[in-house]
Design brief:
Bound molecules: zinc ion
CATH architecture of the largest domain: Alpha-Beta Barrel
Largest sheet: 6 strands, parallel
Radius of gyration: 20 Å
Order of helices and strands: HHEEHEHHEHHEHEEHEHEH
Shape: globular
Strand content: 5-15%
């Protein structure tokens, strides 16, 4: 599609066929040599899955999740919101000390799907860049050498125009294969849905942020789901080791 558009833009296509052909080859080479920047699952047949948590840090829930992960010796990715970092320094320190990975979930949790409808792409790009910068700044106040590598966009909204910003920060986007803990369903139903989605390479989304009481069900389901996965012969991977550099 992109190549096609590119060709359409060439005014002298027929006149300068050889030149266009060389340009096409070059463009194809550039595209093929580009690194994968967007992930929603890991391509493997191995019985390995990945846990990710959004919308923290949270004084209560992040710590509860940490206890569960420690019990089962699992390393996860926590996609944190920039605006919640200040005042939760200790939670961030705990995440790092326990060997988990911190990713950015932007600063304000803006809905870029809506913003994109109202504003130009250029405005959206600038806002996203500012949000990522400010989030890193907050994290660096706690741990100045922190290197953020992954971004999860709010609502999983990703578009190609974001790549320019992602490249500036050297980020990759990690979406999810399955997540269900924000739906108002029974613990049983939630647990069953997660279990049904179990498959090699799946990236699971849970939340460690939210208002009081909001994540009690998540915590119960998380524990049960981890045990279910072990029973089925799955192990929990460290996503940093699975995403190619
Ligand atoms: Zn979120």
């Amino acid at each position: 599609m992109l190549l096609h558009l590119y060709i359409m833009q060439e005014k002298n296509l027929l006149k300068n066929f050889k030149f266009v052909f060389i340009k096409l080859l070059l463009t194809a080479f550039l595209f093929s040599s580009q690194q994968q920047i967007f992930f929603w699952k890991i391509d493997t047949k191995e019985k390995v899955i990945f846990l990710t948590f959004d919308d923290g840090p949270h004084k209560v829930y992040t710590n509860e999740v940490l206890k569960i992960l420690e019990e089962y010796k699992i390393k996860a990715v926590f996609f944190v919101l920039g605006e919640l970092i200040s005042g939760n320094d200790e939670v961030i320190r705990q995440l790092l000390q326990k060997g988990h990975c911190i990713g950015s979930h932007t600063y304000y949790h803006n809905n870029y799907y809506q913003l994109q409808k109202k504003y130009s792409i250029e405005v959206c790009k600038n806002l996203l860049e500012k949000e990522l910068y400010e989030t890193e700044k907050e994290l660096k106040k706690i741990y100045k050498d922190i290197k953020i590598k992954y971004l999860r966009m709010p609502y999983g909204f990703y578009r190609v125009w974001m790549n320019e910003v992602l490249n500036k920060f050297d980020y990759k986007v990690i979406n999810w294969t399955f997540g269900y803990d924000w739906y108002n369903v029974s613990e049983e139903e939630m647990f069953k849905r997660y279990c049904d989605a179990l498959q090699p390479g799946a990236i699971f989304l849970f939340h460690d942020g939210g208002t009081e009481g909001a994540r009690n069900k998540t915590l119960k389901v998380l524990k049960r789901f981890i045990e279910y996965c072990f029973q089925k012969g799955y192990k929990f991977g460290n996503i940093e080791e699975w995403i190619k550099k």
